[in-house]
Amino acid sequence: MDGKIGKLRQALVALAPPLTGIVLVLITATPLYIGHVGQIMPQMGVIAVFFWVIYRPDLMTYGAAFAIGLVADLVTGAPLGVSALVLLVVRRVVLAQQRFFIGKPFHVLWSGFALIALPAALLQWLLASIYLFAGLEILPVLLQAALTTILFPPVSWVLTRCQLLLPMPRTPLHNRG
Amino acid sequence: MLKSALSLGYAVQRFAFPLFAGLAIGLMVLSRIEHPAVSSVRAQAVDVLAPVIAVVSRPMAAIDSGIARIDHFFDVYEENAVLREENRRLLHWQATARQLDAENKDFRELLSTVAEPRNAFVTARMIGMSSGTFVRTALINAGSQDGIAVGQAAVTDDGVMGRIVELGTRSARILLLTDLNSRVPVALESSRAPALVAGDNSNMLSLMFVADGANVQIGERLVTSGEGGMLPPGLPVGVVTGFEEGIWYVTPFVDPARAEFVRVLDYALPGLLPTTREAGATGQPW
Predict the structure, then answer these.
(1) Chain B residues with beta carbon closer than 8 angstroms to that of A66
(2) pLDDT digits 0-9 by tens, A116-158
(3) How far apart are CA A39 and CA A129, in angstroms?
(4) Which terminal residue of chain A, N or C, has fewer Cβ atoms less than 10 Å from its own Cβ?
(5) A27 contacts in chain B (CB < 8 Å)
(6) Superfamily of structural domain B122-266
(7) Do B136 and B65 meet the contact criterion of CB atoms below 8 Å apart?
(8) ipTM for the complex?
């Protein structure tokens, strides 16, 4: 009995990062209209992957990043695989810098995020342009990256609450992948 | 035993990136070549996610209407004046419409005209919107079980919003007029000259293939022409608002971001279109 509950607990802990990412993606899939910003959707998946790769790289695996991206593509109607590929690249790049970010003050983290969000949006733009074989407008992409960066502090605050609920990993975290 | 398990885990870790990246690229290729499996998986996945989205969208909808209320509070005085003026004009139009309606009825009776099929419709809630840079689509919480089929028009009180391109059992996706892949046959309201409005993922539409000699002017209203049998004729689409580099730009009447409910019209032209479609059927790329 105890073993079963333990396993369930383990599974819940392992699923928490991808689940929070998926919920964030689903929330931004709903119609929200704030003046002219209503036409731009923030990339919540990038926030979730960035945050979890820094604090729990063991739980935000490539598979989890892929799953969040796939849900984003399914819900937004974007070409299947585009967001998934972008989030895989984000995980890889952030993982390489993970040690740098650990224990740094929040403004460093935020600046680091801005440096990731813009190339991530541009990569998505490039992939979609190739896919649709059309030169898509670039201004909305820049606005999207800006909006995502602005939303990073409140979203990461919520994710920090979630992260504090999770038990610490048994083995010390180190650079993997 | 333990060692081999560890090395297997290490191998998976090591190759996870190329493995998943390859999978993502494979999916992109499959959806680019419009593999039927992709669209059916997509429709089914959205079906499963639709109730979840409907739940998480409630708080967002509340925030949204809160913002709208604050917005309205500030311009309530001017809006009142505008509405009074509009009301006065509409009352005049109502009288005119009643008169024309009665006249029309008399003429129809005189000529024994065959009655046009009335549109049946399904009203659905908008549960998702992608107004991203790449696609302009919306999700609604009704699907094939509610009688919706691929190709049907989605309209609001203001006019046409788009048409159904992807169908699940209890959810459907609308391709908005502004999407890069959207082409809708229209007619100029004043001269009935046919043309096509095309989306380009911006908020404006461009007017294409205007008939020779048609006199397009800024302020010209466009309605669906009914050509192709996909959309009923006479639905308001947009108004011509600009002319740049030889292209007329059209502002659509419907702002999808503001729409909470849409009506999906069942415009059945007997014999023209296949009437039964399977769930998961799709009529558009990806």
Answers:
(1) 20, 23-24
(2) 999 999 998 899 888 887 777 788 788 889 989 999 999 999 9
(3) 19
(4) N
(5) 56-57, 60
(6) Rod shape-determining protein MreC, domain 1 (2.40.10.340)
(7) no
(8) 0.83
